[in-house]
Design a protein that fits this description.
This protein has 749 residues and is an all-beta fold. Among the domains are: 325-420, SOR catalytic domain (Immunoglobulin-like); 425-504, Sandwich (Immunoglobulin-like); 508-589, Immunoglobulin-like, CATH 2.60.40.10; 640-749, Immunoglobulin-like, CATH 2.60.40.10. It is 0% helix and 54% strand. The strands form 20 sheets. It has a 5-stranded antiparallel beta sheet with strand order 1-2-29-28-27, with no helix packed on it. Strands 31-37-36-33-34 form a 5-stranded mixed beta sheet, with no helix packed on it. It has a 4-stranded antiparallel beta sheet with strand order 3-4-5-6, with no helix packed on it. It is rod-shaped, with a radius of gyration of 65 Å.
Length: 749
């Protein structure tokens, strides 16, 4: 570096200086104590710092030609020696350390390479005159600023050197790469910044800055900051090349470094102080006092700041008070809807030995500026958040403490809440509900949040040009009218609540009795059926009745009875119907035995006796005309003595009167059953009397009875009549015959 080397006395013991400084943070004064210690003592004319991945600190000492290694605990050792005026350090991605050796004035310098194990290659590469700055690109190529001239050397990872890879301004003193791989060079002699693209294209005076620029640093937004040693200013250059004076009033600013929060620190070589510039450009010129001639700055992984003091040969360590932490939560989580309310809560925890004095929550909408949502003089602040505007909201939990007396947002103390429009909804109302099968209902529907479409089950799609509507429905049975809506992304939402219309069916019932007639004391079966009923009765009562099913009951009335049923249910009431070819009337009769007696000689009396009905009736059956007469146990009038009665378990009487007639005359046939019982009897003659061919047109059916008389048709020849009775066993026939003869006729000559 271009300077006059000076030897300054310094103390070799560590001193701890606690300083109270005013720092402007977010536009407010913040006061907190930083601790400055003499972390280590190295040789005088120490100028450059670099950390390895394990937080070991490496320091260049120009006068002794050595590299010192200082562990995180402060143990100092000589890592490499015999270097030729070393001035700059840089690590590659493999942990190898490279050293720029200035050498004798006016001669080419060299680059030394030291492996992680400490193996040294003193003259690994030869470069231009007075090398004092090193920088690696993303491909591992090493670039060297040859400060005594106007060139930049390039060295590949294999050690191949392009001595004058690029020509820049006078006395290139510092190098820095942007995120796109462009290399920027601070030209101390010409007061300019050169820009070199990855392809090697050079813009010699890309920007003009203050006097004697010696240090470069990029912020997270890609703005380039330049320390102008001669003018005591810091220049800011935007990515587009616009230059402004960012801050002034510094005393020989010689080195720049950003902390993890974006604050910029400046080493003032002339005053032995460190300045701090906050994110909003508030400057504290004397933020900390360190050793003599501070030349280089570097942060370790814990954000402690280290300063190499060239004049005193010491390393200063600046530690910050333990920062507060905070957690911020949303009661609805990271996602909520327009119209909902979420409780945002921030809980702050102070650092060691510190005290929370205030907390606040700030908000940024869609990456816009932060707004204050409220604060609290305690460790906890809550904010009730609701909005009608969808978007992304970021909430920050900030804290004030005794040490950090202005708002501080701890790393990670933020939450992103995404607010979306609520999904569409629909609702169904059915009036009245329930209904009978013969009734109608009004279906009313409503929607919210502008659905893309509306579908009502069992109806179809409805227009969504309006948010409500109604129409009449007349379903024949209970029906579901669930509605479904879709949002702009066709996400579907169904709403079944209150969407079922209950339809009560009309009640019905039937009944029938079989057989349709019985003898008193016997029984018949009553079959009945009902559905859609809550009440069902049968008259006359048959006892407990089964509802909504087919069932049977045994009935045995003593008199003829007609059965009727009635049913009722939610759908109304009804009387039972009679199925086709059936009856609901049961006829009840008495099982009677009939006998005959003869009152006097000619009056026949009929007696009917029913054991099932316990009834006996006597009726005059008839009177025999003279000279007829009746017999006991017989309902027949006789005009001649009856033929002998056949023997057997059943006896009858078949008589013809007269038994001898002229041709063409009829006779009277008498018959009955005298003993035993018969199921039926019939009389037939060989002249077809009593048969379907009978010529007796008066009463042909009278020949098929248990007793007669019956007049025959005119008889032309001998005719035989037969009485045939089916006995009560249903198998055996009783038969008896009688004949009538025709008197021959004679004609005189």
């Amino acid at each position: 570096m271009l300077r006059n080397y000076r030897v300054n006395a310094h103390k070799t013991f560590a001193i701890i200086v606690t300083l109270l400084y005013m720092i402007i943070l977010f536009g407010s004064a913040v006061a907190y104590a930083v601790t400055v210690t003499t972390f280590a003592t190295v040789g005088t004319y120490s100028q450059a710092l670099a950390f390895d991945s394990a937080d070991n600190l490496y320091v260049v000492t120009v006068g002794s030609g050595t590299i010192s290694k200082i562990t995180p605990s402060g143990i100092v050792s000589t890592f490499a020696s015999s270097l030729n005026s070393p001035e700059a350090l840089a690590f590659d991605s493999s942990g190898n350390l490279y050293v720029a050796n200035r050498g004798a004035y006016g001669s080419n310098g060299t680059i030394s390479k030291i492996t992680p194990s400490g193996s040294v290659t003193l003259a690994w590469a030869t470069v231009g005159s007075g090398p004092s700055a090193l920088a690696f690109d993303s491909s591992g190529n090493l670039y060297v600023a040859n400060t005594s001239g106007t060139t930049i050397s390039k060295i590949t990872p294999s050690g191949s050197v392009t001595l004058a890879w690029a020509t820049v301004g006078t006395n290139p003193e510092a190098l820095a790469f942007d995120s796109s791989g462009n290399l920027y060079v601070a030209n101390a002699g010409s007061g300019t910044i050169s820009k070199i693209t990855p392809s090697g294209s050079v813009t010699l005076a890309w920007a003009t800055v203050g006097s004697f620029p010696v240090a470069l640093a990029f912020d997270s937004s890609g703005n380039l900051y330049v320390a102008n040693e001669g003018s005591g200013t810091i220049s800011k250059i935007t990515p587009s090349g616009i230059v402004s004076t960012f801050a002034s009033g510094f005393n020989t600013p010689y080195s720049l470094a950003f902390d993890s929060s974006g604050n910029l620190y400046v080493a003032n070589r002339g005053s032995g102080t460190i300045s701090k510039i906050t994110l909003n450009s508030s400057v504290t010129l004397t933020w900390a006092s360190v050793g003599t001639n501070p030349e280089a700055l570097a942060f370790d992984s814990a954000d402690n700041l280290y300063v190499v003091n060239e004049g005193s040969g010491t390393i200063s360590k600046i530690t910050f008070p333990t920062k507060p932490t905070a957690t911020i939560t949303s009661s609805l989580g990271a996602n909520m809807q327009v119209g909902q309310t979420s409780t945002i809560q921030s809980v702050a925890t102070p650092g060691s030995g510190d005290t929370i004095t205030n907390t606040e929550i700030t908000q940024s909408f869609n990456a816009g500026a932060q707004t204050n949502d409220g604060s609290s003089a305690s460790a906890t602040t809550t904010y009730s958040f609701s909005t009608t505007t969808p978007g992304t909201y970021i909430f920050y939990g900030n804290a004030e403490t005794t040490a950090y007396s202005s708002w501080y947002n701890p790393p990670g103390a933020s939450i992103v809440v995404t607010v979306t429009n609520p999904p569409p909804t629909c609702a169904i109302t059915l009036t009245p509900n329930p209904i009978d099968a013969s009734q109608s209902a009004t279906l009313s529907w409503t929607t919210t949040n502008s659905p893309q479409w509306l579908l009502i089950n069992n109806v179809g799609y409805m227009s969504t040009s309006t948010s409500s509507g109604s129409f009449t429905v007349t379903p024949s049975s209970t029906t579901d009218y669930t509605c479904t809506v879709a949002d702009a992304s066709n996400n579907q939402y169904s709403f079944p609540a209150n969407a079922t219309l209950t339809v009560y069916q009309l009640p019905m019932c039937t009944l029938a009795v079989a057989p349709s007639s019985i003898i008193r004391g016997n029984s018949a079966t009553l079959t009945y059926f009902s559905q859609n009923v809550t009440s069902f009765s049968i008259s006359p009562s048959i006892g407990t009745v089964t509802q909504n099913a087919t069932a049977t009951a045994s009935v045995s009335p003593t008199t003829s009875t007609t059965y009727a049923g009635s049913a009722s249910g939610p759908g109304g009431s009804a009387s039972c119907t009679i199925p086709t070819n059936s009856t609901s009337t049961l006829a009840v009769s008495c099982n009677a035995a009939t006998s005959y007696s003869c009152n006097g000689l000619s009056t026949i009396v009929q007696t009917s006796t029913s054991t099932s009905c316990a009834v006996t009736t006597n009726n005059s059956y008839g009177t025999c005309s003279s000279p007829g007469f009746c017999l006991a146990g017989d309902s027949t009038c006789y005009y001649t003595a009856p033929d002998p009665v056949p023997t057997g378990n059943q006896s009858g009487n078949l008589t013809l009167h007269p038994i001898l007639i002229p041709a063409g005359k009829p006779v009277t046939v008498y018959w009955d059953i005298q003993t035993g019982t018969a199921l039926n009897c019939s009389v037939s003659g060989t002249n077809n009397d009593g048969t379907p061919q009978s010529t007796d047109t008066a009463s042909p059916g009278a020949w098929n009875t248990l007793a007669g008389p019956e007049t025959t048709s005119p008889i032309e020849q001998q005719t035989i009549y037969t009485l045939s009775c089916l006995q009560d066993d249903g198998v055996t026939h009783y038969t008896q015959t009688a004949s009538v003869n025709v008197v021959p006729s004679y004609q005189e000559r």
